[in-house]
Amino acid sequence: MTIHAAALKRKINASIKFTKIIMQPIARFVFCGYNPREDTTRFLFFETCRIMKEEFPMAWNRWNLLDLNDWEPDDFHGFVDYALSLAPRLESLPKKPLDSLRGMTVANMFFENSTRTRNSFAAAEQMTGAASIDWSASGSSMAKGETLRDTVWTLCEMGVNGLVVRHSLTGMPYYIQKLVPHIPVFNAGDGARSHPTQGLLDIVAATRRLGDLKGATVAIIGDVKYSRVARSDVLAFGGMGARVTVSGPRTLLPANPEAFGAKYVPDPRKAVAEADIVMLLRVQLERQEAGLFPSVKEYHALYGANEELLSHAKPGAVVMHPAPINRGVEISSGLADGERSLLREQVHCGVLARMAVLDICLGGGKR
What we know:
Blueprint: H1 3-32, H2 40-55, H3 57-61, H4 73-85, H5 87-91, E1 105-110, H6 116-128, E2 131-136, H7 148-157, E3 162-167, H8 172-179, E4 185-190, H9 196-210, E5 217-221, H10 228-239, E6 243-247, E7 263-264, H11 268-271, E8 277-280, H12 296-303, H13 307-310, E9 318-320, H14 333-336, H15 343-361
Helix pairs in contact: 1-2, 4-9, 4-15, 6-15, 9-10, 9-15
């Protein structure tokens, strides 16, 4: 089934559900009676909300994004459809901002260096009409000794409606969400654990190029152990119905690779066999101990992606990488810049995915 047919089928099913949502509270109101002292509009509103929460759990339960481990397949498919529907707004000249979040403010709290994620969120905030606060630890009062807790509370008292958080410590977005349970927190990467918006943008980019991902094979090769992207990609691609295989040096893999929910194949050439997508992961030198592989040259020879490695994949297989890339380490320049590369499309789809995340979680479509 093509992406267009699959999307149409989901829209028809959604229309049927929406009719049910509208009619059920009205029928209950007409035939079952109501307390005359209860406001009619209020009754219908809350009854509709109750049914929508049952029928569309993503639309009503997703108000932040800390991880993808509780997403259902319908959540992933619905999200991809919505993100791709925003493409004409970003690609037209002049651009056509969604403006659904006008009057809201999002603070981008990055405790690590970032080019793509940080600026992609900023672009998405502009495209949805939200104001941005670009915060960095080095230029803040934390450099004077202020605690993270006091910094977060300070920003929220300034009227911030959402926090985008990247931190080197695993679980930090969860900690911040507990500090401010009334403010949505968006995980932009925490330690080596999770990078949910990267997982989402990757399935958006892959779907845009290949169509429906159900039954597709994804080979993830490289530093799986220290990558925050690997786990999110396994969840996201798996949620779209794809099969995922991981490969890499044994020293750069977790103790039980298949606990990720992916098949482990030691030989990368066998791992990419029949692959539709070859996902390369950057060697995370900043998070790992020294001496986990002999040399960069040897790593590239054994696990780096070039035309020879890709010859073992399906004809027409595409190459992806969360970036930044190390040319000549995990990927050759020829492959990174070639026609089979989705690297630039991933950056583009990063804005679409983050527009969709902000709009869904901050309630743009319901305002």
